[in-house]
Design goal:
Blueprint lengths: L1 H13 L4 H4 L3 H13 L5 H30 L5 H6 L9 H19 L2 H23 L6 H6 L6 H11 L3 H12 L10
């Protein structure tokens, strides 16, 4: 739920998604109409934030309602009952599951496979791979505290380096890569 909706927000902000295209999706269009009714004079940016918030709320409430109904129908009273149920009890209603599949297809077609997004992902992979290789070769590049704490044996050694990289912001990783491996920039390619 969070990924779906925050990716909508990110896609709109990055210009990879257009509101008009999102409104071809029935569930999104319904929420947008509700936002426009509640906030008719609000700036578009505020309306878009409210759309994402409403989408999250609708999806969460659907999961809660559907899950409560499934638990009641299965007469679940204990954790043992859950394990013995033999099926998933938590999830979307069939209608919301169908809407979410449509949204996922839309997001793959219009955001996740967008040429600029793919180029940025490839550049990010290059930066992370370069940093990982550099830190494997010379742990001192991570700084004294991280270098002193690095395990000598695998998989602990690789996990330690991965944790160090995972704690970086994009800006910090880009700067570190430029200093260690040479000039780089995490910017989308121009089409």
């Amino acid at each position: 739920i969070a990924y779906d909706n925050h990716d909508i927000d990110d896609g709109l902000r990055a210009g990879f998604l257009a509101l008009e295209d999102l409104l071809t999706l029935d569930g999104v269009a319904e929420q947008w109409r509700a936002v426009e009714r509640r906030y008719p004079a609000a700036p578009r940016e505020r309306q878009l934030r409210e759309l994402v918030r409403d989408q999250i709320g609708v999806m969460v409430n659907d999961v809660l309602t559907q899950t409560r109904a499934a638990i009641d129908a299965a007469r679940i009273e204990t954790a043992a009952d859950v394990r013995a149920a033999g099926r998933a009890l938590a999830g979307f209603s069939p209608a919301m599951a169908a809407q979410e599949r449509v949204l996922k297809r839309f997001m793959y077609a219009n955001l996740y496979h967008h040429p600029e997004q793919l180029a940025a992902a490839a550049e990010a992979e290059r930066v992370v791979s370069g940093l990982f290789a550099a830190y494997c070769a010379d742990p001192a590049l991570m700084g004294q505290r991280w270098a002193e704490a690095i395990p000598q044996a695998e998989p602990g050694r690789s996990r330690h380096i991965a944790d160090f990289i995972a704690g970086m912001t994009d800006r910090y990783a880009t700067r570190a890569h430029a200093e260690i491996c040479g000039k780089t920039a995490l910017v989308p390619a121009t089409p």
